[in-house]
């Protein structure tokens, strides 16, 4: 069977990772990426042999920088079967029209509204909802993290309600445009949008979220309190998490006490760009009291949505069932389970 031709529009934090992940699968290939400016990322993409498509007005700048241009953004859209749109939030609507006109499938990211596509995606929670669709949206990093564990808990024990406090990274490591650089900044518009976003995939979950921006770039931490539909033991929940796809148990007893040590583990694992695709839960920080479960999970914001984008392509192109796709993506990316 011919490989699915994937074009990646926007080659920043998420786009470059999606391109690498797609290029590691045997049933799809990257036919091109887009760049607006001839930055170092354009140069590394060119060195990696990725065809670079640019807006027509940017061609002279790329030529001046000595970077070969394969064509315009419209040319890439024409050549692709699926476009993974990784442009900054709110740019998506402008491109959706182009994809629609060209009759192409497209995946948008969490910076766009759910209403843009009407369907949002998470591999564990609702793989089937994007089956054969022209458009879908992979939810944000925080929402992906929450859905990985909440969808399983709901299936096993029926969630009565969930309260989550998110400590958010202020900026990505390569970003120097945002802050705070020395403070903690509460999100005062409450409840925050993260709970609403969880409902874009699992509308029946009763969830409320709050968030605080912290001066770190590495990861988010989510402090989760869930009232379950029945009383279970802490060990039972730990067993559920241990078997869950793209969830990794870590322990302070092993020396992983903070997000910087989680990222050190990712470096030890030798992953591309030291990415931690899994949601990391502190096993010694999981506790059930009566029918209430408490746990902390760390989310590598640059990485957790990457395997979901690969699975979303398979669902939209009706290539295989969810569990099969998750296993295939995991194997190609070196994720244990
Ligand atoms: P980014 O700023 O790192 O990358 C965006 C890329 O798009 C850049 O290369 C930029 O030059 C390019 N671009 C800008 N305008 C464009 C245009 N009009 N046409 C084509 N390319 C254009 O952003 P990012 O962090 O990769 O975020 C992309 C999307 O992924 C957003 O929706 C964001 O909300 C979502 N997301 C980000 C993270 C994260 O932590 N960074 C996590 C999950 C989801």
UniProtKB/TrEMBL annotation:
One Gene Ontology cellular component annotation held by this UniProt entry: cytoplasm
Residue ranges annotated for the Glyceraldehyde 3-phosphate dehydrogenase NAD(P) binding domain, each copy included: 4-141
The entry's keywords: Cytoplasm, Glycolysis, NAD, NADP, Oxidoreductase
GO biological process terms held by the UniProt record: glycolytic process; lysine biosynthetic process via diaminopimelate
Major localization listed first in the record, in broad terms: cytoplasm
PROSITE patterns assigned: GAPDH
Catalytic reaction equation(s): D-glyceraldehyde 3-phosphate + phosphate + NAD(+) = (2R)-3-phospho-glyceroyl phosphate + NADH + H(+); D-glyceraldehyde 3-phosphate + phosphate + NADP(+) = (2R)-3-phospho-glyceroyl phosphate + NADPH + H(+)
Quaternary structure and partners: Homotetramer.
Protein name according to UniProt: Glyceraldehyde-3-phosphate dehydrogenase
Organism, as annotated: Methanomethylophilus alvi (strain Mx1201)
